[in-house]
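Problem 3 from the worked examples.
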Amino acid sequence: GRAEPQGAEQSPRRLGRLLLTVVLLLLAGAVAYAMLFMPKQGERADGQDTSKGAVPVDTAPTTPPRSDPEPTPTPSGKDTAEPDAKPSAEPDGEVAEGFVLRKDPEGFEVAVASGWQRAPRNGQGQVVYSKGDFRLIVVPGRDSAEQYGRDPQVYQQEHEPELQPYRDSTWAGSGGLRRIEVGGKVMAEGEFTWTDGQGRKLYVRNLAILDGGRYHVVQLRGPEAERDQVTRLFEQASKTYESTG
């Protein structure tokens, strides 16, 4: 028979090699593209590091933990004391709007609401500022630690004359009893309720201060239904009281 031309036999081989070359070039191009443009291991497409050692950054706003205020105690019986307490900072002594710092001739200064009337020192050693149903009673160093001991909490609960109505009342309660130490002074604070001689229910905030061997008293009395106002008036008086005698 007649032999086929040699060129016809080589043509399919040449075509196969050409196709193989094209496939290899495409693979090489794909690998090069992946190396240049695909994100590296441990990174996201947006450039942030996601490797094991990385610490994610929290961009969400943080909210401080909520702290609920202490409830105001209600009359549930006497002598409900709390543990000793020390304030984190000394009171700043600033006078709020609507108050005046009264420099009393009896040897002390204290913030009193504007428009309150002052009564002269009485036979019990009390200086009283008052308006309407509210009374601020200040006792500047009447009683001595030598006579009543050096524990303001015991003095407040058992001896302080300004709290005798609480001890005698058939409807009485106490709460928020605590010991405070500030700048070398030792104090006892408490909240009290009792019924006065006219049958009115009173809410009373009291502070007994042992300073220089003598007891000073700052007490605010008002209607039991006006607890917030009593507290507001008392806080101004208690944080600004200073013996000047």
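Problem 4, a separate protein:
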Amino acid sequence: MSVIEMDKYRNKGKKYTLSTYDSYYECTFMKDYQHKYSQSQIQGIEIGGVYAIILKTNKGKYYFAAIHFFKGDFTLPESLDWLDKYGIILMEEGKEQQTIKNCERVIDIVPFKKNHLILYKKGTETLKLDYTELNQGQQSDKFDRKTKIVLVLNGEKLDYIPRINFNKQRDVVVCNGNCVVADYIDEYNGNIGFFQDTNPTLPISFIFTEKTTVYIDIVEKEKSKIYIVEYDYEIFIDD
């Protein structure tokens, strides 16, 4: 891991730390959160093409700790550009109204455990959102998805399952020695599923076993990539 100290963040006068890992860039808002909280207390929520890292304390309180930008979707300049244009706010349970300053408009709202994660485009206005308005039309809870496996992506352990997109014309996906023709990997029932764009609700294949470690290594070769997925599994047969 290497660390990039960003200049004063435009219009905000704040300094952020951007760390670069093999698979993603991380903009951190809570220092050393990985060492202060256990894996079971850290989860990632996809919103606006990035992953918001959320912490849960022993008292049940939630905090917004970091943003992950996966290198398959973002370059370093694109990550900085995203931070310049967009923001994320965590609206806690019990808060009747949320004020968002320097806002142009709200882009997406993700509910979880009676809290709300709000993605907005930065601007010059001040926007106020009522809790009752946020709940209208928000039926799903994207946070209530417990990961049943341990995922190691390019040697780095993740506390959530990210979406990984493939180029079927150039890339090769190999899962335990078998080639899989899919458009992307995403979370499915707390595990990993292989999906095609034509059917995002049902994977063409998925990992069934639980309590295992799944290793995904991405090997770049000229203009293509090889995705190697490996894991151990057990099959139980009733007598």
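Solution to problem 4. Residues 1-13, 137-144 have pLDDT under 50 and may be disordered. The longest helix spans residues 76-85.
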